[in-house]
């Protein structure tokens, strides 16, 4: 009976002794993986924002974080003079600019392009063969 009573203690001691190095490696790998998942996307986002800031120039059409559309008139340090309407210029922080505004002409051209389904022929209805211009049929 004494051997059966000490069996749980023996199992616990064996588990504690064998999990030393393995018990430390797994949490370390998980922590490195999580840090990588948080740091890399943040670094890419900062790089993209820095690239956007470097491309800003007078005459660029932009959209602010608040949703205002305008054209850059003047840049002085961290302040941008943005023309939002005829003779209406506001001063905003460079950091509040969100993205470039694409001209509507390009959007209209993109809308005129057929989509992938149309290019592959999906969704088209069968068209009857075209009649000859002279009105005579070959049959």
Question: What characteristics describe this protein?
Answer:
139 residues, SH3 type barrels, 2 domains, five-stranded antiparallel β-sheet, 5 helices, 5 strands, flat
Descriptive notes:
Helices cover 47% and strands 21% of the residues. The chain has 139 residues and is of the alpha+beta class. It folds into two domains: 10-53; 56-112, SH3 type barrels, CATH 2.30.30.60. It has a five-stranded antiparallel beta sheet with strand order 4-3-2-1-5, with no helix packed on it. A hairpin with a 2-residue loop joins β2 and β3. The protein is flat and about 90 Å long. Residues 104-108 have low confidence and may be disordered.
The first-level CATH class of the largest domain is given as Mainly Beta
Q: Tell me, what's the shape? A: flat
Report how far apart the termini are: 105 Å
Largest sheet: 5 strands, antiparallel
Helix proportion range? 40-55%
Approximate strand percentage: 15-25%
Averaging pLDDT over every residue, what do you get?
A: 76
Class by helix and strand content? alpha+beta
Q: What is the CATH topology descriptor of the largest domain?
A: SH3 type barrels
If helices are DSSP runs of H or I spanning 4 or more residues, what is the number of helices? 5
Low-confidence stretches: 104-108
| Biggest sheet strand line-up | 4-3-2-1-5
CATH architecture of the largest domain: Roll
SSE order in H/E notation? HHHEEEEEHH
Domains counted in the coordinates: how many?
Answer: 2
Radius of gyration: 33 Å
């Amino acid at each position: 009976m004494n051997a059966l009573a000490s069996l749980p203690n023996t199992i616990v001691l064996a588990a504690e002794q064998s999990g030393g190095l393995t018990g430390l490696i797994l949490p370390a790998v998980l922590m490195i993986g999580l840090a990588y998942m948080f740091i890399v996307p943040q670094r890419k986002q900062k790089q993209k924002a820095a690239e956007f800031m470097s491309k800003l120039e007078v005459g660029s059409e932009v959209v602010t974080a608040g949703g205002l559309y305008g054209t850059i008139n003047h840049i002085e340090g961290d302040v941008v003079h943005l023309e939002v309407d005829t003779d209406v210029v506001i001063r905003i922080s460079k950091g509040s600019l969100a993205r470039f505004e694409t001209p509507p002409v390009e959007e209209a051209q993109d809308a005129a392009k057929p989509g992938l389904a149309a290019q592959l022929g999906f969704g088209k209805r069968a068209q009857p063969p075209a009649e000859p211009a002279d009105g005579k049929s070959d049959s």
